[in-house]
Each structure stands twice: as structure tokens, then as C-alpha cells.
Amino acid sequence: MLDRILEPTTCAQCLTMAMLAILFLQSGLDKVFDFQGNLAWLTGHFAKSPLRGVVVPMLLSITVTEVAAGALSAAGLLHLVIHDTTTLALWGARLATLNIVMLFLGQRIAKDYAGAASLIPYFILCAGALVLLAA
Q1: Could you write out the DSSP letters of every residue in 114-133?
Q2: Among 87, 89, 90, 122, which is least packed, fewest CB within 10 Å?
Q3: Cβ–Cβ contacts within 10 Å for residue 3, how many?
Q4: DSSP 8-state assignment for residue 84
């Protein structure tokens, strides 16, 4: 099993899924445990945008998507190591990529172009995970 995990493609898949699990679980759980703080920040962030009236539903959908992406990425990593299959990992990467696209859209609508640009490396990681897991 260790030989298989250390094979370059499998190793890259595992490490990529570890990154996604850490990224999205930390971000999602931060929103769960500090919902009011995140809500206050986002309310101010979107105050002058067309999205100002839907901050709560946006925060809820982003939170659910992040936690699900992180959990599926973590489960996908374990499943990849134990069962040598990428099904769960692919679902984690799909949700992660969708989440970044949702965040990017919100940043662009809020005219926070620097914030939107800072999401590009995360998008590349997520899209790369999709390609890598399909290998």
C-alpha cells in the first residue's frame, strides 16, 4: 500500500486532497463558529452592492459548500489511500471548485477586484485537483 501511495500521481492526489480538506474545513468551520463575525464583515463588504439584501443566504450557502467540500476532500483522501478510488475525492474537488467560483462572483459583484484576484491560486488548485483525480 505504501508503494502505491508514494507513486507520483497517487502522492500528488493525496497531498492535493489534504490541502483542499485543510483549506475548506478551516474556512467553513470558522464561519460556523464565528457566524456573527463573518456576517458582520460580509454585511459591510456587500453594503454598496446589489447583493446587500442576500448576505445571510450567501453566507449560509458558502458555509455549507465549504464544510461539505472539506469533509468530502478529507473522506476522499482516506478513501483514496484505503480503497484506491477517487470518487469521493472528485466530489470534494468539484464542490471546492464551485465554492471558489461562487466566492469569485461575489467579489467581482462587490467590486473587490483584489479579493477576486486572490482567489485565482485557489481556483487553479481546485481545477488542477479535478484534472489530477481524473488521471
Answers
A1: HHHHTTHHHHHHHHHHHHHH
A2: 87
A3: 7
A4: -
Write out the residue range of the structural domain in which residue 110 sits.
2-134
Confidence (pTM):
0.93
Per-residue pLDDT of the chain (135 residues; tens, 9 = 90+): 788 899 999 999 999 999 999 999 999 999 999 999 999 999 999 999 999 999 999 999 999 999 999 999 999 999 999 999 999 999 999 999 999 999 999 999 999 999 999 999 999 999 999 999 997
Are residues 14 and 80 in contact, defined by beta-carbon separation less than 8 angstroms?
A: yes
For residue 95, give the amino acid letter.
L
- Closest Cα partner for 93 from 65, 117, 60, 112? 65
| Structural domain total, the chain | 1
